[in-house]
Amino acid sequence: MIDVNAYLGHFAFRALRHNTADGLLRLMDRKRIERALVSSASSITYRSAHAGNEEIAADLARHRDRLIGCAVLNPAYAGWRDDLRTCHEEFGMKALRLYPRWHNYKLTDESCQELIQQATRRGMAVTIPLRVEDRRQQSWLVDIPDVAHAEIAAAIQAAPEARFLLMNGSGFAASVLGRKNNGLPPNYAIEISLLTVELANELGQLLQNLGEDRIVFGTGIPFHYPDPSLTKLEILDAPESVKQKIRAGNAARILRL
User: Distances in Å between the alpha carbon of 143 and those of 101, 137, 159?
Assistant: First the structure.
C-alpha cells in the first residue's frame, strides 16, 4: 500500500503521536503500509513553511525506500522559488502541498498558479488538503474554513498539465469535482480518508463517476488513525483489481514512483 496522506513533525494546536520517522514507520509496519507520501505538519502553522521541509529532510533521506517527500510551500511568502528548487533538487521531494486557507492565499492567485506551474515542470504532483482538522474541533485561536470545491476546480481547469491529489475532503460527489462528464481535465485524483463507503457511499459514487484510476489510498496519519481507511477498502464493493489500484497503483503512477 502507498499512503498519500501522512505527516512528520508537530502541529501547533494538538499533540501528535507517531510523528517521528521511526514512530511513523513502526505504525506503517503494523498496518502493512509499504510507503507513504510525507509532508511536514509543522509547516502548516510555521510563518515560513519551508522551515518544516528542512526539518524533515534528514529523516526522508534516511528512509527513501519508504518515505516520499512532499514539500509544503506558501506562494505568498518571499523566496518560494528558491525553496521549491531546494525541495526538489536537494531533498528529492516528489510532490507539492498547498494550504491556501492556513497560509492566506487563493489557489487562483497568480503567485499560486506560478508555483503550480513550476512544480509541474519539475515533474512534481500537486496535493491539496481541503482541511487539516474538522472546523468544529479547531482551537479557539483560529477559524479556518475548508477549501471550496469550486476554487479547487478553477485551479484544476487553469493547469491541465498538472497532476493533482485532493485529500482530507468529502462532499465531492455533490460538487463539480465528483460529477461524471464535468468538463474538467481528468488530471486529479481523490484520496479516501474522509469518504464514506456505507450509507451515502461517496467512494462508490466517485468510482462510478470518475473511474477506478482516480481514487487513491490515504489515512491522514498521525492526525487520524489508519484503521478507518483500511476498513473502507475491506468493505468496498469492488473487484480486487480495483482495490489494488486504490491501494498502490494509482498513487505510484501519479507520483511517478
Answer: 10, 10, 29
Say if residue 129 is preceded by a cis peptide, omega within 30 of 0.
no
Predicted model pTM: 0.95
Render 14-40 in DSSP notation, one character per residue.
B--SS-SHHHHHHHHHHTT--EEEEEE
Q: For 167-223, write each residue's pLDDT tens digit.
A: 999 999 999 999 999 999 999 999 999 999 988 899 999 999 999 999 999 999 999
CATH topology of domain 2-255: TIM Barrel (3.20.20)
Taking each helix axis from N to C end, the angle separating 110-121 and 149-158, rounded to the nearest 10 degrees, works out to 50
CB burial of residue 159 (10 Å; 0-12, 13-18, 19+):
buried
Question: Which secondary structure element, helix H or strand E, spans residue 5, and what is its range?
Answer: strand 2-8
Residues 6+ apart with CB under 8 A from 239: none
Q: Are 3 and 33 in contact (CB under 8 A)?
A: yes
- What share of the chain has pLDDT > 90, as a percent? 94
Q: Which cell numbers hold the place of 175?
A: 460538487
